[in-house]
Amino acid sequence: MAYSDKVIDHYQHPRNVGSFGTSKEVATRKDVGVGIVGAPECGDVMQLQIKVNDAGVIEDAKFKCFGCGSAIASSSLATEWIKGKSVDEALAIKNTQIVEELSLPPVKIHCSVLAEDSIRSAIADYKKKNGIAAATTQEASAH
Amino acid sequence: MAVKLPIYMDNAATTRTDPRVVEAMLPYFTEKFGNSASRNHKFGWEAEDAVDLAREQAAALIGASPKEIVWTSGSTESNNLAIKGAARMYARSPEGTKGRGHIIAAAHEHKAVLDPCKRLQNEGFDVTFLQPPADGVITRAMVAEAMREDTILVSIMWANNEIGTINEVPEIGALCHERGVIFHTDATQWVGKMPTDVEKDHIDLLSWSGHKMYGPKGVGALYVRRRNPRVRLEAIQDGGGHERGMRSGTLNVTGIVGFGKACEIALHEMDSERERLLNLRRKFERELSSRLEVTQVNGHADRRMPHILNISFGYVEGESLLMGIKDIACSSGSACTSASLEPSYVLKSLGVGDELAHSSLRLSLGRWSTEEEVDYAVEGIVKAVNHLRTMSPLWDLYKEGIDVSKIEWQTH
Ligand SMILES: Cc1ncc(COP(=O)(O)O)c(C=O)c1O
User: Fold this and answer.
1) What are the catalytic residues of B?
2) Could you read off the pLDDT of B107-139 as tens digits, one per residue?
């Protein structure tokens, strides 16, 4: 399968790989929202962690991804896009924008969907930890 | 010695045609281009002589007589002709009825065996697909247990194309002969690499293919036993009555010449080649397993073909791994590399978890593989796996001591 140059670039030089601590550590941090979507048996798992400041702006984001090159590129790109955005602005990101930016072929669209899901899921976690009513963000991932 | 890139490590998919084979084929395109069925001129006689020689070369490789070789377009066709041809010939009741006879095959056969068997199921035959054990080896005892009074055909591959495991073919053949059941084996990955004797190994029908043993693509052969017992087949392709009516169609003379030459070379070189490839594969396996944690060599530890290595790297997805080793041509059991988006059914049938199936590579060596190439591939794979593990959330969980298989994933 031929990959776009942008996918290859993200694969070779992933942006913002990492985490803000072990799964146990981040579970108790109120300024960090964690989203883990996908499943190992399906061949892709994405983990997105966001650090949100008091003004509700995503100051920093880190990802980890088990999946194909397109999945890695989608989550890497997602971290780039949400950094500096408010939580609500980040929620407005659509998977179709990721598809377009990375020129993903139809069989790889699910990678972009997963990236969008990971953003929603991380924000939902942040809101839950901080007692902010979550709009139906989690349910949006049904597909 | 500098390694020439990209490196070819997908010899279980197909092999380079040996230049000696190409050399032998060339005159049959432009000078001796006759139809081997033309009985009344020199062009035809030359072609017929060439086909006869190839028949002898092919028969010699498997201990058969030249009259027992039927030319086909490859193993897919040989398997179809053997399985459907035998089942329909030895059916216990006519078309349109049920209970036409029982067939045994293994669940991790190539699709070119599974799909003909499934078609026969629709035609009123009963098929048992034997579930392989974790080591992938189908034994005589497993076949014996599945045998019924109405079993008419057993089809068990000699060596598996994805994991290289070797089934108990001579033993299963002996069992079939004791019970008077026809025995077919898909020997595509076996013949030309390992000694084969259809008499001692009790085989009635054997499929193999040119392009897996350094011959050309699009040509194969089916061995059809002529005595003790004489096996008859119902033809699939009808026409001019070539190949004693079992496979009509003008013979692919150039391809057949190449197939014969490839058999001749294999017969002379297989012993030294086998030793050499086995040593290379063992080194490959040893290096990868010792330099990377959480690896798993799939299939039986010893009963495996010398040229095939199937190995899973925990917490790393196969397609992304292939992307990281772009200059090493090989294949993966990952869903992302298949059209079906399902991980390898062969690994699944062995009970390899989906997640390790997604993480597998099949590396297959061949006549021109070198130690330098193996060394280069080891470096490349180790580097790519480590790179991907720094990105893998599953690797982190594993390192934190969390059992990834116990997590409830949000599947979609
Ligand atoms: C075990 C086995 N059987 C059958 C086939 C099909 O062979 P061919 O490509 O000659 O039709 C292959 C090759 O893919 C194989 O490995």
Assistant:
1) 336
2) 999 999 999 999 999 999 999 999 999 999 999
Q: Give A31-70 pLDDT, tens digit per residue.
A: 999 999 998 888 899 999 999 999 999 999 999 999 999 9
Q: Is A67 on the interface with B (CB under 8 A)?
A: yes
- For residue A9, the chain B residues in CB contact (below 8 A) are none
Give the global pTM: 0.92
d(CA B328, CA B331): 9
CB proximity A37 to B under 8 Å: yes
Chain B within 8 Å of A3 (Cβ-Cβ)? Answer: yes
Choose among B407, B393, B398, B411: nearest CA to A38.
Answer: B411
Instruction: Write down the pLDDT at residue B335.
Output: 61
Phi, psi at A49, each rounded to 5°: -120, 135
Contact (CB, 8 A) for B380 and B328: yes
Q: Residue B65 has which token pair?
A: 């007589």
Mean of pLDDT values over B281-310: 97
Check CB contact under 8 Å for A14 and B391.
yes
Q: Which of A24, A40, A113 lies at the smallest CB-CB distance from B394?
A: A40
Instruction: State the DSSP H helix or E strand holding residue B309, giving kind and residue range, or none if neither.
Output: strand B308-313
ipTM of the complex: 0.88
Closest atom, ligand 1, to C-alpha of B209 = 10
Mean pLDDT of all residues in B389-411: 87
Alpha-carbon torsion B113, B114, B115, B120, what sign? positive
Nearest residue by C-alpha to atom 14 in ligand 1: B13
Burial of B224 (0-12, 13-18, 19+ CB in 10 A): buried
Question: What are the DSSP calls for A41-106, one per residue?
Answer: GGTEEEEEEEEE-TTSBEEEEEEEEES-HHHHHHHHHHHHHHTTSBHHHHHT--HHHHHHHHT--G
The β-bridge relationship of strands B360-364 and B331-332 is antiparallel
* Contacts with B2 (C-beta within 8 Å, 6 or more apart), sequence order: none
Q: Rounded mean pLDDT of chain B?
A: 95
Of B393, B410, B412, the CB nearest to A66: B393
